[in-house]
Amino acid sequence: MSRLPYHIRHNPHFCLLKLSFLSSNSAVLLAPKTFSSSFFRTLLPSTPSPKPCKRLVPSLSSKPISKNNSLKLPTNGFSSLPYASVTTPVYPKDLEERHLDTRSWQIMNKRLTDLGINTSECVPGKENRLLCPSCNGGESEEISLSLFIEEDWSSAKWLCFHAKCGWKGATKALADGKPSDQIFNKVNKYKAPRQITVEGLLLEPLSNEVIAYFAERMISAETLKRNAVMQKRLGEQINIAFTYWRKGALISCKYRGIEKKRFSQKDTEKIFYGLDDIEDESDIIIVEGEMDKLAMEEAGFRNCVSVPDGAPQSVSSKEVPDEEKDTKFQYLWKCKEYIAKASRIILATDGDSPGQALAEELARRIGRERCWRVKWPKKNDTADFKDANEVLMYLGPNALKDVIDNAELYPIP
Length: 413
Ligand SMILES: [Zn+2]
Fold this sequence. Notes:
413 residues; 13 strands; 15% strand; alpha+beta; binds zinc ion
């Protein structure tokens, strides 16, 4: 069979045709060792399967059956082949599953082929190593793609181990058990972060206008300079550019219009703002925005970072996902060695409910035992100040320092 043309070997209908043959005298022409394509290998394992129903293997039965019981395969058009007196091929229930399997194989094979994954040598139910179509294995042309296809071809997942690629994804052949070609799972392709530079982003030193904007918020020119806060012109508009660095390399950039419009540099990695400032620190302060990080510096704390993404609306009711699935908190996992070295993590997020939810989400991941929280001072009889920058602006740097010095242990339920 391996000598047959590709389009015949890889046509699921041909498989059904073959099954019809198996129920006839012609079966002798199709000795199992000729089934070389991976699909047939699944269908016809050399050892008995513990789950015969899932497979397209004719099951042996001592019960003789009549001619009328010959395989009725709804779509292949070959079901009227004369039946010969061999063993019962399958139970009727298997037929539907068989049909589904064939359908899954057809869809999955096309899906993966369209992605550039060569499935011709793939064996379902185990890990296959292939050339990655995304990176072609890099310079060393390593066979770096790990592909796993379910035994019934219902789903597949893959991951490229090449460090510079990391392409991964998953797909299902059918949705809700319905043989529908229409519902496809999204294929998530990992995008390597963009390499950026200050020059490449056309960042400029701060103009007096922007320095004045910060001065109103009690942030000094010196603090701006040490944190490499820059600006970027877009037409007439000047945007503040908060530069995100890791070990001295520019990783990302976040912009904020003086009228408060915010946006991030596309396709860059999300990391803590001020990350290099917490390396080897035993106390780490985490705040919610860049302005708060700069405010902390005015109060004498450089050992502070701000989260790149703001706060969630509420605490998730689910368990903390595994590290690699915890997409929203990758910035935390990626610097876990910094966090692990610290003895105290002071959560100084905003006083509103999203800010408190953020503190809780961070504490769940870091471990509540090492976490501390702050109490924002009273603004008036009914409200508290909401964040570090507000405290700095209204009460001054000493009051902000007091807030941190008086942090209390994070509650452990
Ligand atoms: Zn790759």
